[in-house]
Amino acid sequence: MEKEELTKERLEELIASGELPFGELFTPHSLRMYWNKGKGWQEPTIVQGRGLTLPLEASVLHYAGEIFEGMKAYHWDNGEVYLFRPEENFKRFNASAERMSMPTIPLGLLEECIFGFVDFSRDWVPRCPGYSLYIRPAMLDISPAIGLKPGTDFLFFVILSPSGPYFKHGIKPIRLMVTDKYSRSAPGGVGEAKTGGNYAASKKPLDEAKQSGYDQVLFLDCCNHRYIEECAAMNVFFVIEDTIVTPPLNGKILRGITRDSVLLLARSMGMKTEERAISIDEVLKRIEDGTLTEAATCGTAAIITPIGTIGYLGSDHHINRCKIGPITKQLYDTLVGIQYG
Fold this sequence. Notes:
The chain is α+β, with helices and mostly antiparallel strands. It is built from 8 helices and 17 strands. The chain is 28% helix and 28% strand. It is globular, with a radius of gyration of 20 Å.
């Protein structure tokens, strides 16, 4: 498959024209580090190219032994490059590894890999507000055997993507479709692990949502199809009577770092927050009576994105006349201000 090879000149052109996509173009190098049952983690290396050859019996190709993270590097006006709360990504990466029966990586070694590779690639970090260097660390079970058994060989790698906004239209309200047909995760499953299978299972409902004119899909709990959980690739929160309300961390949704940042910022600003179960019935009722005044998604890629419309059972329900609300705007401006210095 032919893919455009990004050059620094082309990167500048795309930024200047406002046409730099999210997650589609990559820097020419990758970082790789191998783990073997008998040797442990080997020395990380930065190599030219992003190609990878695997034997067809590699475990990941059959049993989806894979985890990843999503991070961003930002270029500040002082000329330095910074990451936003990277230690939280490192902790979550290892939590995902433990859940998927993969080797964890010492935090110091993770820092060495990520910080060193970003510093090596600092010239690729866009120097423009709204743009960033997206960082994708991942681990694969490359054990050369078929059959469910403990892995013997793993590959940790990092690729980098200079990126524009996740939603091309920027911070404008999006349309969500609530699905009562599909479920993202179940109690005791891998819902809070950042593993590829969770996202693969979300693609069909997301495709159906987009075919119906929506931007994202919103999942309900798998048992009753009643309580709100999260979107395909981001958490969600609501402003109800001036209180930030978001579904609780129950093992079924991702422990979002942006979600946590929103709660911390809101509390620091004197806002009330609640982490509790919230049903789709309550959401629609409160939209109707005016006590739910704002809603938004949040995640590393999308940052904070207001929700203007929630579609459920064939009917659209509009929030704040499909405009961004003051609390969402304040949280967005504060968070982005911290990220970009």
